[in-house]
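Thanks for the sequence, V.! I ran Bifunctional diguanylate cyclase/phosphodiesterase right away. Repeating your input here for the record:
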Amino acid sequence: KQAKAAGTPQVYEPKEASAARRRFSIETELRRALDKDQLKLFYQPLINLKSGEVAGFEALARWTHEDRGEISPAEFIPVAEESGLILQLGRWAMDNAAQTLANWDKAIGETLPLYVGVNLSAIQVARDNIADMVSSALRSSGLTGDRLTLELTESSIVQDPGRATRVFEALKALDATVAMDDFGTGYSSLAYLQRLPIDVLKIDKSFVSGMMRDPDAVAIVRAVLSLAEALGMSTTAEGVETVELATTLAALGCASGQGYYFAKPLEEDEALAYWKSRRRR
Ligand code: C2E
Ligand code: CA
Ligand code: CA
Ligand code: CA
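Predicted structure:
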């Protein structure tokens, strides 16, 4: 692209080429990491904004690469989706999250009043048998379906609404909770809110973090909260980074909150300790 200046060693390469190269090696290495079970799930608490107790945890994939260090899900999840590896990753996450919640029950010696949330990619909805995947995770962990929340995005609906409807209904038949993730950032119509069995709206952090400086963001959050209430759905706010946001959201009637103000995603045993520390009884 650029003429090489005399005497200057050309240590760079065109941006697109190096990005494509990195993407390709991420794919190869992600495949290996999945086979060698090198990914981990971290658990971020969702706090009941009324009681202050932990309502549940969202399972988030983490990958520490031997040489490259921590690789963000924002980078490897899209690669997993493009390559189809998300099917394997998604099943792994489902099984492990369910097993972790079962382990916590066992450690405390009771059925904990907690759920675990697992992200489902639109690619999984389009290509995998979700009902089969979830029932197999329930069977091997021994959990009942009401302990699971599946977080789906609007993009899993727009491509094939008929298929999405069957998937959502199959999840309800297993007694699982269905949450609409990143609500408000997608391109689908509001009509699906009426047609699909959705239990929870997760308000995207882009709206939540804007609330303190932008009255329009507050208006959007208010509107989503009243829409959810009118439709009999619960609400979670993502990206709660300050006590002011937590207080404001609680006053507006948002049911739960998730964000760095409460805790970042935690390792399995840290997460259980966090639950204990906020337990009332
Ligand atoms: P998401 O589902 O919207 O998850 C929430 C993201 O917000 C997480 O990023 C979380 O660490 C981050 N977060 C939590 N609290 C705060 C906060 O207060 N402020 C800010 N700025 N960020 C906060 P993470 O873990 O990097 O994951 C990014 C995305 O990768 C997730 O977004 C999700 O779409 C995807 N992802 C992660 N794990 C999985 C997985 O196992 N399966 C699938 N399909 N997707 C996953
Ligand atoms: Ca999510
Ligand atoms: Ca989200
Ligand atoms: Ca988000």
